[in-house]
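Hi, does anyone understand the following?
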Amino acid sequence: MIEASVDELGVAEIVVNNPPVNALPVKGWFDLAAALQSAGADPAVRAVVLRAEGRGFNAGVDIKELQAAKDFGALVGVSRGCAAAFAAVYDCPVPVVVAVQGFCLGGGIGICGNADIIVAADDATFGLPEVDRGALGAATHLARLVPQHKMRAMMYTSATATAAELQAFGSVLTVVPRAELRAAAFEVAHGIAAKDPAVIRAAKESLNGIDPWDPKRSYRYEQGYTYELNLTGVADRVRDEFGR
């Protein structure tokens, strides 16, 4: 599900591959967090490329796992797993370059919003369909990708934005044909890896330190409303209606 390697120039590649849509279960989110933490802890690693195989980058959490659960254990698990994975992207001591193709939804927005650099295929779309699933969360991260009012409109309507739109907002660095996506991400990462690693690690830490708000705390605040919707039965009703 999660594979990791490091090339001769010090770029770690972390690949998510969980067909059919790269929706991750509880264990998958924690495994992703562990892979990022391991890469960042390796002094030989100078940058990370995070990408996925398949039709799309990430479809969020595994809704089937949540629906099959007999209690709220899976909900708590996936909430903590997502928080851990998003935090691992943000806290990784070296820059994280994400390569996005196809759909990037829900948890995929959490990954991208906390990443340092986004390279996208020309077929990539970004969205938060959480309200259609009776959930909330990752508006924290969407607000790092699009302007405030665009974020609100996307959240309320489940509308998506294209890679070209995000490039115009400045959150996507470059848009390339899908066949060139991996190479484009590595070109950026290798450019970072060529710099002095001590300076780059200091730059990452300093940039996190001047963020106007803490995305980890902000995201956990959002998750409280997802718990509320589940405890009151609203989430089950919305998911059942959506699935009809």
Observations:
- The first helix runs from residue 26 to 41.
- The CA atoms of residues 7 and 140 lie 33 Å apart.
- Strands lie at 2-6, 11-16, 47-52, 96-100, 103-105, 117-121, 125-127, 160-162, 174-176.
